């Protein structure tokens, strides 16, 4: 599965997971410590905007525009994610600059796919849907996550990984590696 295909699959999972979220669920807690569902969805909106920036402009700014929080971040996310999905399916993607540092298009797509998939899983857990990351996607993302996420990332972006049994599915292994408790 190419980076573009991974990102497209992650966006499809994210859209399907976020679309049914209702406004009365926004105050619900999420697996992300100290974040409610509204905050998580706002972060996901910012992430998909940064990915789209990279795909469209070839550069990603380090600081997002200071935007007013969305009144309906689930709707905003699904709309933005659908636009990015269309670009992925059209084969868009190019090398980008992030804060002046070059990043290959495939790496941007893989990082974006991990971000979209894990936050869709977070939304699914918070909303009570409990949908795992699709197995083919999780299996494709796990090696990239192990390569891209370092111990330094644990202190600021990810909680410590959790142990899972050897027989755990790829979705459980990926979410556990990313600091989530898959048996939530």
Explain how this protein is built:
The chain is mostly helical. The protein has a single domain (3-134), classed as Four Helix Bundle (Hemerythrin (Met), subunit A), CATH 1.20.120. 57% of the residues lie in helices and 4% in strands. It has 7 helices and 3 strands; from the N terminus they run ααβαββαααα. It has helices at 3-18, 37-57, 73-89, 105-127, 135-148, 151-156, 170-177, and strands spanning 59-60, 96-98, 101-103. It has a 3-stranded mixed sheet. Helix 2 packs antiparallel against helix 4 (105-127) and helix 5 (135-148) packs parallel to helix 7. The radius of gyration is 15 Å and the shape is globular. The mean pLDDT is 88.
Précis, in short:
By secondary structure, this protein is mainly alpha-helical.
């Amino acid at each position: 599965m190419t980076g573009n295909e991974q990102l497209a699959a992650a966006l499809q999972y994210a859209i399907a997971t976020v679309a049914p979220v209702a406004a009365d669920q926004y105050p619900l807690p999420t697996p992300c410590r100290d974040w409610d569902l509204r905050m998580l969805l706002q972060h996901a909106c910012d992430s998909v905007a940064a990915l789209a920036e990279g795909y469209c402009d070839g550069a990603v700014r380090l600081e997002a525009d200071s935007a007013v929080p969305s009144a309906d971040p689930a709707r905003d996310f699904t709309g933005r994610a659908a636009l990015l999905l269309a670009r992925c399916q059209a084969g868009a993607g190019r090398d980008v600059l992030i804060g002046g540092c070059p990043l290959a298009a495939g790496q941007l797509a893989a990082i974006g796919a991990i971000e979209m998939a894990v936050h869709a899983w977070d939304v699914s857990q918070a909303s009570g849907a409990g949908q795992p990351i699709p197995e083919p996607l999780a299996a494709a993302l796990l090696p990239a996550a192990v390569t891209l996420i370092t111990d330094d990332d644990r202190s600021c972006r990810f909680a410590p990984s959790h142990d899972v049994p050897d027989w755990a599915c790829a979705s459980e292994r990926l979410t556990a590696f990313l600091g989530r408790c898959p048996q939530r």
